[in-house]
Amino acid sequence: MVRLPCPLLLLLPLLRVSAATPEPCQIDDEDVRCVCNFTHPQPDWSSALQCMAAVEVEIRGGGRSLEEFLLKSASANPKQYADMLKALRLRRLTVGAARSPAQILALVLHALGFSRLKELTLEDLEVTGQVPPPLQETPGLALTTFRLRNVSWATGGAWLGELQQWLQPSLKVLKVAQASSLAFPCAQLRAFPALTTLDLSDNPGLGERGLTAALCPRKFPALEDLALRNAGMETPSGVCAALAGAGVQPHRLDLSHNSLRATAAGARECVWPAALSSLNLSFAELEQVPKGLPPKLTVLDLSCNKLNRAPRPEELPAVDDLTLEGNPYMDPEALQHQEDPMASGVVPPCARSALTMGVSGTLALLQGARGFA
Ligand SMILES: *[C@@H]1O[C@H](CO)[C@@H](O)[C@H](O)[C@H]1NC(C)=O
Ligand SMILES: *[C@@H]1O[C@H](CO)[C@@H](O)[C@H](O)[C@H]1NC(C)=O
Ligand SMILES: *[C@@H]1O[C@H](CO)[C@@H](O)[C@H](O)[C@H]1NC(C)=O
């Protein structure tokens, strides 16, 4: 049996090297980026050793279940490798395409707590069971950026509170896309004192009610950027109400790529955060400027909507930097391009972004097709 210091290899103490399997890990010539894709039924786990020199590591489990490592990892204590973990150059780690018992995830987080990892991404992961709280001796991950995409949790919205216990309060950026639950039980959540960016984009089922449940009052005191692209938002005033309810004060709000309505039936006047200076309403299918916008903004992006006439001054907030490109009244072909980006050989600005969304949609489908082995 070989003992290895690489945090993920701690979980895999039994290394079987089979000559027939292709090399699952590849490191680039500069020793910066290492990518592992363990799709083979009996992969050569030791291939991951070469990633020890890398700054950026990406590990995909080919959709396998990590259940089999549960017993083998029971006696693993990452603390005994603390010095070696600290010496790793690893700063960015992506782990994905696996089904993992929560204890295994906790062991990885424990090990990574000794490293100098800054950015962690979890992708296409199904976590079973409840993530146990850390032991006393765990320093906690000093992450600046934490991204989760398509991660499902057995414990519903409690996942954020469970993971937070493993983190130092240094987190600046939290991005959660395709989430299974964003309804956080607020009482179990501590504040994120350094968090400036919260990105809940690509959660089309979220909606304004979901946003209200996600934005726990007083937990995001430093928030500056709130991104809600493609998040099922319906009206700017509904979003305003959710922000007011949570008392969050973002400086920049991105509501692009939502299908927004210009007026909310029976909406009450809502007071926008005083700090809000930038509002992005592009790609929002707006046929007119929505009511209830903040009275004053530095930046307002209304590009790539369906405005059929120039907005009247009284419809707009006082704004320094207004973008109206890609609306049909300015460019009669814009609408056609938004609906059919391939229609002509020339790619106008709105079509390009719609096209990018289309491409990422295709990627999501391809990833979806990968499934569990
Ligand atoms: C991993 O390997 C599988 C099969 O070889 C392939 O379909 C998949 O695209 C790979 N994933 C990545 C992220 O390279
Ligand atoms: C608004 O959002 C769109 C699409 O998400 C993006 O392309 C554009 O750069 C954003 N505008 C500003 C001012 O940030
Ligand atoms: C989401 O992750 C699961 C694994 O937990 C996977 O089976 C599914 O295909 C992923 N979906 C997408 C859209 O990538």
Automatic annotation (TrEMBL):
Keyword set, alphabetical order: Cell membrane, Disulfide bond, Glycoprotein, Golgi apparatus, GPI-anchor, Immunity, Inflammatory response, Innate immunity, Leucine-rich repeat, Lipoprotein, Membrane, Repeat, Secreted, Signal
**Which cysteines share a disulfide bond?**
C25-C36, C34-C51, C186-C216, C240-C270
Pfam families, per this entry?
LRR_6 (PF13516)
What span is annotated as the signal peptide, if there is one? 1-20
Localization terms from the record: Cell membrane; Golgi apparatus; Membrane raft; Secreted
Q: How does it sit in the membrane?
A: Lipid-anchor; GPI-anchor
Subcellular location, principal:
membrane
One GO cellular component term of this record is: plasma membrane
Q: Which SUPFAM superfamilies match?
A: RNI-like
Please name the GO terms of the biological process aspect recorded for this protein, alphabetically.
cellular response to lipopolysaccharide; inflammatory response; innate immune response; positive regulation of cytokine production
* InterPro entries with a match to the protein in the record: Leu-rich_rpt (IPR001611), LRR_dom_sf (IPR032675), Monocyte_diff_Ag_CD14 (IPR016337)
Q: How does it assemble?
A: Belongs to the lipopolysaccharide (LPS) receptor, a multi-protein complex containing at least CD14, LY96 and TLR4. Interacts with LPAR1.
Chain's role: Coreceptor for bacterial lipopolysaccharide. In concert with LBP, binds to monomeric lipopolysaccharide and delivers it to the LY96/TLR4 complex, thereby mediating the innate immune response to bacterial lipopolysaccharide (LPS). Acts via MyD88, TIRAP and TRAF6, leading to NF-kappa-B activation, cytokine secretion and the inflammatory response.
Q: What is this protein's name?
A: Monocyte differentiation antigen CD14
What organism is the protein native to? Answer: Sus scrofa (Pig)
